[in-house]
Sequence to fold (84 residues):
Amino acid sequence: MMRFEVKLLKPESATSDEDLKAIEEANADAKKGMYHLKYLIGNIRCRKHPSSPNKIRITAVKNGKPKPSIVSYCCADFLSMIKT
Ligand SMILES: [Zn+2]
Fold:
Protein backbone atom coordinates (compact mmCIF):
# COMPACT_ATOMS: atom_id res chain seq x y z
CA MET A 1 0.00 0.00 0.00
CA MET A 2 1.38 3.33 -1.03
CA ARG A 3 0.42 6.69 0.30
CA PHE A 4 1.45 9.90 -1.32
CA GLU A 5 1.65 13.30 0.24
CA VAL A 6 2.47 16.60 -1.40
CA LYS A 7 4.17 19.30 0.58
CA LEU A 8 3.41 22.60 -1.07
CA LEU A 9 4.93 26.03 -0.66
CA LYS A 10 2.79 28.69 0.92
CA PRO A 11 1.59 31.27 -1.62
CA GLU A 12 1.21 33.80 1.18
CA SER A 13 4.97 33.62 1.77
CA ALA A 14 5.60 35.19 -1.63
CA THR A 15 7.54 38.42 -1.55
CA SER A 16 6.59 39.60 -5.03
CA ASP A 17 4.41 38.71 -8.01
CA GLU A 18 7.36 36.95 -9.56
CA ASP A 19 7.96 35.00 -6.39
CA LEU A 20 4.30 34.03 -6.27
CA LYS A 21 4.52 32.75 -9.84
CA ALA A 22 7.57 30.65 -8.93
CA ILE A 23 5.72 29.22 -5.93
CA GLU A 24 2.66 28.37 -8.01
CA GLU A 25 4.84 26.67 -10.61
CA ALA A 26 6.70 24.70 -7.95
CA ASN A 27 3.41 23.57 -6.41
CA ALA A 28 1.99 22.54 -9.77
CA ASP A 29 5.16 20.58 -10.53
CA ALA A 30 5.00 18.84 -7.17
CA LYS A 31 1.40 17.76 -7.81
CA LYS A 32 2.32 16.56 -11.28
CA GLY A 33 5.26 14.67 -9.81
CA MET A 34 2.98 13.06 -7.25
CA TYR A 35 0.54 11.85 -9.92
CA HIS A 36 3.41 10.56 -11.98
CA LEU A 37 4.84 8.60 -9.05
CA LYS A 38 1.40 7.31 -8.19
CA TYR A 39 1.04 6.06 -11.72
CA LEU A 40 4.48 4.45 -11.68
CA ILE A 41 4.58 2.85 -8.25
CA GLY A 42 1.15 3.40 -6.70
CA ASN A 43 0.17 -0.24 -7.07
CA ILE A 44 3.38 -1.80 -5.85
CA ARG A 45 2.82 -3.95 -2.80
CA CYS A 46 5.31 -5.63 -0.57
CA ARG A 47 4.78 -9.39 -0.64
CA LYS A 48 5.75 -9.72 3.00
CA HIS A 49 3.81 -6.75 4.29
CA PRO A 50 0.95 -6.16 1.85
CA SER A 51 -1.07 -4.01 4.22
CA SER A 52 1.76 -1.97 5.65
CA PRO A 53 1.46 1.71 4.78
CA ASN A 54 4.39 3.08 2.85
CA LYS A 55 4.51 6.78 2.53
CA ILE A 56 6.19 9.02 0.01
CA ARG A 57 6.29 12.76 0.28
CA ILE A 58 6.83 15.05 -2.68
CA THR A 59 8.09 18.44 -1.66
CA ALA A 60 7.66 21.46 -3.91
CA VAL A 61 10.94 23.21 -4.65
CA LYS A 62 10.97 26.78 -5.83
CA ASN A 63 12.82 27.18 -9.13
CA GLY A 64 13.66 23.50 -9.12
CA LYS A 65 12.37 20.01 -9.44
CA PRO A 66 10.03 18.57 -6.83
CA LYS A 67 11.87 16.42 -4.35
CA PRO A 68 10.47 13.00 -3.49
CA SER A 69 11.38 11.41 -0.20
CA ILE A 70 10.32 8.19 1.43
CA VAL A 71 8.73 8.96 4.76
CA SER A 72 8.02 5.45 5.91
CA TYR A 73 8.39 1.97 4.50
CA CYS A 74 7.94 -1.56 5.76
CA CYS A 75 11.28 -3.14 4.89
CA ALA A 76 14.47 -2.78 2.88
CA ASP A 77 13.22 -5.18 0.22
CA PHE A 78 10.29 -2.94 -0.49
CA LEU A 79 12.50 0.09 -0.52
CA SER A 80 14.69 -1.43 -3.20
CA MET A 81 11.57 -2.32 -5.20
CA ILE A 82 10.35 1.25 -5.37
CA LYS A 83 13.77 2.81 -5.84
CA THR A 84 14.33 1.33 -9.27
ZN1 LIG B 1 7.89 -5.16 3.43
Summary: The two ends are 17 Å apart (CA to CA).
